[in-house]
Specification:
heterodimer, A: alpha/beta, Rossmann fold, 29% helix, globular, B: alpha+beta, six-stranded mixed β-barrel, two-stranded antiparallel ribbon, 13 strands, elongated
Chain lengths: 248, 387
């Protein structure tokens, strides 16, 4: 693969689909260099990628290939060394300072982390309530009912359970519901099946894809689990910081 | 508050342990405060109850024990009486004596010689005011030691007999010794070494005495004057005129025996207690915050502002500190009320309120330093499997 970036356009993949609004995620020629013990590492190497609303994309690749860096850049957690990152039409380089970036994240982004990463002290309903409070920072938060979202991830019956009382798959379902609380335009998913068996992995990824389709959310999932790719609209592979399309 | 409250119930074991330590510190703080107030009362309650703005000691008197060491005379008094800001100035005699009651019980007394018609004269809560040559108005706390109205007290060595005619309103002690007020002239008769052996002093003896010395000059400033406020500069003119060294009332406490040593020791212990409290709370919240750093990174990635997490952490620390300090203070007050009578121990609202506020405030400072870590947590660490 050449150093020139492949342009992996959402529209070219979903033939005929027309998206009037902005793209969920639009990376153009993005490079990210990280200092690692005095050595510069090119975590992202001229990456160009776009994801349309309602599209669920998987990023595969070996460990250390830069998959997490891609999520960090797309998730307004790290600023690229060069190139532009647009999320929902907003150029992130226009957002200066941690406060503005955090505000952007809580309004527009949903994160699903490895093994859920829930707050141990909170039951499932309170996980969602906390997310709602974070999303409506400052503004008097309107009343919020976590029940519909919990039902959407089949966790309505476990609303009162804390993470310690839930199975790995159940924790991940609550994590997904939590990521949807702020009605995000872009959902970033980090190794959602890392600690799950095959059947549960299938269920979780299918759920993620369904939520993205139904809610018109652009989804980017980083995974090294090749068994779950059938649920994804498109798969790209990342090797040494460079992105290439994987034929369906 | 949302997260703070739920974490308090979730990790109640850890928080109760921390709360227990805060509570114990609060108990110790109440007991120390009581002891401190008690010792202050024992040391200077007699001075506190006097309507005095300042005391003038003979120039150059060493500060410690100045009340019994200083000697002033009528000329120095006259010089002070001429000062513009002085409303009242009187000689006062002070000496500590051993004595025996007519029942053979030994008592220690601080003899305060005051003008029976002057502004220093005590208003007895029981019995009569100072009058005659041989009357004593003694501290109410002596009632517990078998002294009644009419008890005759014989001073050791000189064998002069004095009679208790009244009791003060409340405790009146000086240097941990009960005060007995007596007429200044009688005090001077004793100080001059002319008091009768084996009898009570008489008016004739007082009239015949040619002795104008006493220990200190008690000053009362005119209303609203700098002297009343205890401003040291207001004393300069009078001191120069009368060759005295003047101290405001509060400052003069240091001139009473042992006062400075006692209060400094206790203050030092209290300062250490506050420091320990703040450090323990700080250490606890440091560990607690580090334990949760991945969880906090996740919340930061979700867009929680550092301020939100900071407020939540401080709210948690405040709830913990306020509730367990309150419990500790309640327990300390309970324990304090069980203290035996003879112990110098006094539970006073103001010092306990100040000490509680300081415990909470300094604990919060400790917690704040620890909780400030949330602002340094990198949200990017939420990604990846580093759990």
């Amino acid at each position: 693969m050449s150093a020139t970036a492949h342009h992996l356009d959402a529209a070219s993949n979903r033939a005929g689909a027309v998206h009037p609004g902005p793209l969920g995620l639009d990376l153009r020629d993005v490079t990210l260099e990280l200092g690692d013990g005095g050595e510069e590492i090119r975590a992202l190497d001229h990456v160009t990628l776009s994801v349309a609303p309602g599209e669920f994309l998987a990023v595969i690749g070996p460990s250390g290939a830069g998959k997490s860096s891609l999520l960090a850049v797309a998730g307004a957690l790290a600023a690229p060394t060069s190139g532009t990152v647009e999320v929902l039409g907003q150029d992130l380089s226009g957002l200066r300072g941690q406060g503005r970036l955090a505000a952007f994240r809580r309004r527009n982004l949903g994160f699903v982390f490895q093994s859920g990463n829930l707050v141990p002290a909170l039951n499932a309903a309170d996980q969602l309530r906390l997310a709602h409070r974070i999303a409506h920072h400052r503004g008097r938060s309107r009343s919020f009912d976590p029940a519909p979202l919990l039902a959407a991830v089949d966790m309505g019956h476990r609303a009162g359970h804390r993470p310690g009382q839930l199975s790995g798959g159940e924790r991940q379902r609550v994590g997904i519901a939590r990521a949807l609380v702020n009605e995000p335009g872009l959902l970033l998913v980090d190794e959602p099946t890392a600690s799950l068996d095959r059947r549960r992995s299938q269920d979780i990824v299918a759920l993620l894809a369904r939520q993205c389709h139904e809610r018109g959310i652009a989804g980017v999932m980083v995974t090294h689990d090749h068994d779950v790719l059938e649920h994804c609209d498109r798969v790209v592979e990342m090797v040494d910081g460079q992105l290439s399309a994987v034929p369906a | 508050m949302f997260l703070a409250l739920r974490e308090l119930t979730f990790a109640r074991g850890r928080f109760s342990l921390m709360g227990l330590v805060i509570g114990l510190i609060a108990i110790l703080m109440v007991l120390l405060s009581g002891l401190s107030s008690g010792l202050v009362n024992d040391g200077v309650s007699g001075l506190k109850s006097l309507p005095v703005s300042a005391f003038a000691f003979d120039e150059g008197t060493k500060t410690d024990n100045a009340f019994s060491r200083s000697v002033v005379d009528a000329d120095q008094l006259a010089a002070w009486q001429d000062q513009p800001d002085v409303a009242e100035a009187e000689l006062m005699g002070s000496s500590i004596m051993n004595a025996v009651t007519d029942r053979g019980e030994q008592v220690d007394l601080t003899l305060f010689g005051v003008d029976p018609q002057g502004f220093l004269a005590p208003e007895p809560a029981e019995g009569e005011a100072l009058d005659g040559a041989a009357g004593l108005v003694v501290s109410q706390s002596l009632q517990g030691e078998g002294i009644e109205l009419g008890t005759v007290i014989t001073l050791d060595r000189i064998n002069t007999e004095l009679e208790v005619v009244g009791f003060t309103d409340g405790q009146a002690t000086f240097g941990h010794v009960n005060i007995a007020y007596l007429p200044l002239a009688t005090w001077q008769l004793i100080a001059a070494g002319q008091a009768p052996d084996g009898a009570a002093p008489t008016q004739e003896q007082l009239a015949a005495l040619d002795f104008d010395q006493a220990s200190v000059i008690a000053l009362q400033g005119a209303e609203g004057s700098a002297l009343t406020a205890g401003d040291p500069e207001a004393f300069a003119a009078g001191d120069a005129e009368a060759t005295t060294t003047t101290m405001a009332l509060e400052e003069s406490f240091n001139a009473s025996p042992g006062y400075q040593a006692e209060t400094m020791t206790l203050s030092m212990i209290q300062v250490f207690l506050y420091a320990i409290g703040a450090l323990v709370v700080g250490a606890f919240f440091t560990v607690w915050t580090i334990q949760r750093s991945h969880e906090l990174a996740v919340l930061r990635a979700m867009g929680a502002s550092a301020g939100y997490l900071l407020r939540d952490g401080l709210a948690q620390a405040s709830i913990l500190l306020v509730s367990f300090t309150a419990l500790g203070v309640a327990a300390g007050l309970g324990l304090g009320s069980l203290m035996p009578d003879g112990m110098p121990f006094a539970l006073e609202a103001q010092p306990i309120a100040v000490a509680s506020a300081l415990t909470i405030l300094l604990g919060l400072v400790g917690a704040a330093v620890a909780v400030l870590r949330v602002t340094r947590i990198e949200p990017i660490t939420a990604l990846g499997g580093n759990r």
